[in-house]
Specification:
Layout lengths: L1 E7 L11 H16 L2 E11 L17 H8 L7 E10 L8 H5 L4 E6 L2 H10 L4 E3 L12 H9 L3 E5 L1 H5 L10 H19 L4 E4 L11 H10 L4 H6 L3 H15 L9 H5 L6 H4 L26
Length: 303
């Protein structure tokens, strides 16, 4: 199985809906991706931190009409698995409110930090599944091993979108030329590979139309060109995105230490716990919930 965790949703706010042409392009992109061997795909809804999220109407928090896509595509493409994702573009992480309530409405929760402070705050304080950097522009900060390594150790995956290399500024705002975009992309990706020690990387398309898609072999060749060996390169499109998706699905499918068994149950969109979706409180056992008010200790048994 191969994964693509970034198929952009055509709209980036709650006030507009996809046009007929945008809806057709989205379906064609999904179908073409499936024909290239990508069976698990995530539709990505990208919003700025300034966008007002309708928390008072929980049914509107996730605008991606995943059920309509499944109804149209599943009968003809039974191997297709679709998921929803939200990406927040963050300049000041202190302005983020209700993140826990937001992420429970999507299968994946990603952050796109715009500066170094937002990146460090995201890694240390926000529980997210993916960190996606705008690699088309020159990053205004230097990717340090300490920060990126901390994120990798916490299970956060760092995303590389190859459509920025194929189509330039498509899907991203940039005022630089095509050649400079490619130069920035290679420099940023090499910096990310170095700072992460080739760990915790996820490669997605970010494609807004079928012409921006590439098959797995093309992606592997590109990653090997960047210095990754065959094992590391293959994990970027198989193992790492699967881990990100399963860990994200555990937010919905798990309760304390009890979870659903089997990958199909964890990554399927059926039988959601709607009560948990609308509850921002966590399920970790607090210190004062124990009988004695103290933490349990583990002792070694004498031989």
């Amino acid at each position: 199985m191969s994964y693509d965790l970034n198929i952009p949703w055509p709209c980036n706010n709650y006030s507009t809906a996809p046009t007929a042409q945008q809806w057709t392009d989205l379906k064609n992109t999904i179908i073409t991706n499936l024909e290239l061997g990508i069976t698990h795909q995530a539709i990505n809804f990208t919003i700025d931190e300034s966008v007002k999220i309708p928390f008072n109407t929980p049914d509107r928090i996730n605008p991606i009409n995943i059920s309509a896509l499944n109804d149209e595509l599943k009968p003809n493409f039974p191997t297709l698995n679709l998921f929803t994702r939200v990406t927040l573009i963050v300049n000041d992480s202190s302005k983020l409110q209700g993140v826990a309530k937001l992420q429970n409405h999507f299968d994946l929760f990603a952050i796109q930090p715009a500066n170094e402070k937002a990146l460090q705050s995201t890694i240390l304080n926000i529980e997210c599944d993916l960190i996606s950097l705008n690699l088309a522009n020159k990053l205004p900060f230097f990717l340090k091993f300490k920060a990126i390594g901390t994120g990798v150790s916490k299970g956060i995956k760092f995303e590389i979108n190859y459509s920025q290399l194929v189509s330039g500024t498509s899907g991203y705002s940039s005022d630089v030329s095509g050649n400079l975009i490619k130069k920035n992309w290679f420099n940023n990706v090499l910096q990310l590979i170095r700072s992460s020690r080739s760990r915790g990387l996820v490669v997605s398309s970010g494609a807004q139309n079928p012409l921006q898609l590439r098959n797995s072999n093309d992606i592997l060749i590109l990653l090997k060109t960047l210095g990754l060996n065959s094992s590391k390169a293959k994990s970027c499109i198989t193992i790492n995105p699967e881990k990100a998706l399963v860990n994200a699905r555990l937010r919905i499918k798990s309760y304390k230490q009890v979870i659903s068994i089997g990958d199909r149950d964890l990554i399927d969109n059926k039988d959601e716990n709607s009560a948990k979706k609308h509850d921002a409180s966590g399920y970790k056992r607090k210190h004062d919930e124990t009988a004695s008010g103290s933490l349990l200790k583990k002792y070694k048994r004498d031989a």
